[in-house]
Structure prediction request, 235 residues.
Amino acid sequence: MTAKSISAGQGAGWLKCGWDLFKHDYGTWFIMFLIFIGIAIVLNFIPFVGSLALSLISPVLMAGFMYSAAQLDQGSTIEIGNLFQGFKDKERMNKLLILGALSLLASIVLMLIVFALVGGSAMMNIDESTGTIDPESMMTGGMIFSFLLIALAGLLIAMGFLFATPLVMLDKLSPVDSIKASFSACLKNILPLLVFSIIYILLAIVAAIPLGLGFLILIPVTILAVYCGYRSIFH
Prediction:
């Protein structure tokens, strides 16, 4: 898959496109999202194994949203069962599970980086007389640089996985190729991604005001906006 470079303004259009898809059948989208949240809550109650399983199947469930968005985009209707579309094709399911495993591995690597950088800085700033960490000495140039490195590592990981799920589900790419294509797409479209991120942050502030209830709409709309971004860059 070859990613196109698009204009910065199209980053704002992704959210509008996501909203248009959502309002077309908001009832089905909302129920699909609630089912996804319910599955996540149940799995998180199972120590270790549950969170591991959730990490693995999250791309499979996200693929259901991508498939449904594509169906609606092509003029077809959608149904709640589409959430599990990723499980219905064994080849795609295996690829999506591998994608989940790679995402989990990337998260572990990021945590190791955090522990190495932050933990190392903390050890160097222990007050020998009291045995405690001095908060003021922690906020040194080195510590700030560590936080910047962590943010950069997190950003690079996010770039690799942003469009990976629709590329696997809708274009049948391998997990590794989908990550490469997603990373390349993000590199070519930094400005629209920046516009998209700024608008999302502003909307998130608004969504948080009524006890965070706005996120029940903002999150599914954002998931659909990712599909819109994928479509505008790759098709």
